[in-house]
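Input.
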Amino acid sequence: MAFMDNRRADRRTDIMARVEATWVDSEGQKQVVVGMLEETSPHGARVRLPEPIRVGSRVTLKWLREQFSGTVRHIREWGSGYIVGIQRDGAVVPRRIT
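Output.
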């Protein structure tokens, strides 16, 4: 995607798979929506969802091959939905030397 930075330390895999996202909103209510998993890596994932999730929220993603949890790191409105970047739990993001 044109707006994404391509200087990542880990390899990302493009994918199109149905994904279920579950999180607790700011009022303490459990939310579940179905979206599309667009990209995955050992450290995170990019999903397209019909609803926004607040940055910093804990989210669980479940799709055909796996289920994992993480933290929302960024979100951007895109078309009729939202692109959400999630860092997987336990992921150590390597620092880039500049």
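The beta strands are 13-24, 30-40, 44-49, 58-63, 66-78, 81-88.
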